[in-house]
Amino acid sequence: MPGSTGPDELIMDREAVEAKLRDLAGLIADRTDEPGDLLVVGIRRRGVELAERLAGHLERTGVGPVDTGSLDITLYRDDFEQVGPRPVIGPTEIPGEITGRRVVLVDDVLYTGRTVRAALDELADFGRPSRIELCVLVDRGGRELPIQPDYVGRRLEVPAGRQVAVGVPSLDGDLAVRLVDVKGAG
Question: What are the tens digits of pLDDT across the range 142-166?
Fold first, then answer.
């Protein structure tokens, strides 16, 4: 798992994650009046696969086809100079116009809020959505900015020296949520 240096504690296995995504899709669907206006956008890296899975569950609720996109916020980070001399920048893919659309921004873990702030800054470069909502698989608290999710799969209290690691099949070989030791801690 990403960031792991010690024993992992499994919080959610594949079935539990899929169940949370189904639940989140149901909540989003309940608030959807105009399905054609809905755009689900994942934050790279793990948020993208979660957004695609969420969109699939939304489609199965009867919302209809759901457009998906992705954001790479690397150039929008407030700690960009600390990323390193050659940051790996992935593609940002926004299908069509976002002005006037309802955007559901998807991320794996919400912590300080800085990633979401960067994503909001980047989205503003593409237009002015009618509404932006935040959907996260895990909210671990610890906010540094006044950013709160609209949809939360699970809230966790994370002990000092540990972090939440979300695995997705395309990057990690499995769909799961674990608590892992922070690199260099202890």
Answer: 999 999 999 999 999 999 899 999 9
CATH number given to 15-81+90-160: 3.40.50.2020
What residues does each domain of the chain span?
Answer: 15-81+90-160
- Cβ neighbourhood burial of 147 (10 Å; 0-12, 13-18, 19+): middle
**With a cut of 70, which residues of the chain have pLDDT below it?**
1-6, 79-87, 184-186
Looking at the whole model, is its pTM more than 0.70?
A: yes
pLDDT in tens, 51-73: 999 999 999 999 989 999 999 99
Cβ-count burial 47-74 (b if 16+ within 10 Å, e if not): bbbbbbbbbebbeebebeebbbbbbbbb
Neighbour count for residue 145 (Cβ, 10 Å): 12
The rounded distance, in Å, linking the Cα atoms of 97 and 181 is 41
- Render 117-136 in DSSP notation, one character per residue: HHHHHHHHTT---SEEEEEE
Helices and strands counted in the chain (H then E): 4, 8
